[in-house]
Amino acid sequence: MRTPTSRRRRPHIAGGRPVWLFDLDNTLHRASHAIFPAINQAMTQYIIDALQVEMDEANRLRTGYTQRYGATLLGLARHHPLDPNDFLKVVHTFPDLGSMIRHERGVARLVAALPGRKIVLTNAPESYARAVLAKLRIERLFEQVIAIEHMRDRRNWRAKPDHAMLRKAMRDAHVSLKDVILVEDTRSHLKHYRRLGIRTVWITGHLPRKPHADGVPTRLPGTGRPHYVDRTIRSLKSLRLGTRSVRLKGQQGRQPCSRSTSPTKP
Ligand SMILES: [Mg+2]
């Protein structure tokens, strides 16, 4: 696995436990507003141009590889002779990124208020992740950005929810899995990683809404809390509340994120 460049120039950030692993898209900001549609369109166009296929086939490959491997890139790299780094760069470059970003009010304050270490773990490339974090003004709050380029091993591209990748990344960061709290919008990632003994928070506030028959957005079906989710939250605000309440109990148990302290449910 490659070493994130951020590790060489780690900012001065308070350490300790817990160790928050934050997903990026639809967790720290609302990628489903404009960025995801643009990435999907760019990926489809890239596949059309690179593989000389029709749009329907390109969309089929894009969605199929995401479902099968966790990221379109992994399927493209495995099955087609194209340049993965060029693909990542082309489909994640947005000259007007700032206008595409939507996020919670006070996101920097909310993340900064959380005790412990903070790391970003994203299947996106590093340049895009850092550009988004910079627009959100929260890049300095994270000691590392573990992006998809850093998840590679000698032979293969890897991505969430790969177990070996996460174990290696946490070993390299000197993090014990029992101290990790993963905050994610993607349920399959939470499900796979819960098996490693880490704690899981499912954030749902940025998930796309399904249009109701009368035009009013409604919540996606199946957003009840699954067994592999320790807490469901809609907003990062709830993380702080949950951590505070647990801190009061902290002398007896180190559970900054537990079912009993869950203030929110969808
Ligand atoms: Mg996400």
From TrEMBL:
What Pfam families would the database entry show? HAD_2
Q: Where is this region: Disordered?
A: 246-266
Instruction: Give the matching Gene3D superfamilies.
Output: 1.10.150.450, HAD superfamily/HAD-like
Protein's organism: Paraburkholderia terricola
Q: Where is the composition biased (Polar residues)?
A: 252-266
InterPro entries according to UniProt: HAD-like_sf, HAD-SF_hydro_IA, HAD_2, HAD_sf, Pyr-5-nucltdase
- Give the protein's recorded name: Pyrimidine 5'-nucleotidase
Q: NCBIfam families from the xrefs?
A: HAD-SF-IA-v3, Pyr-5-nucltdase
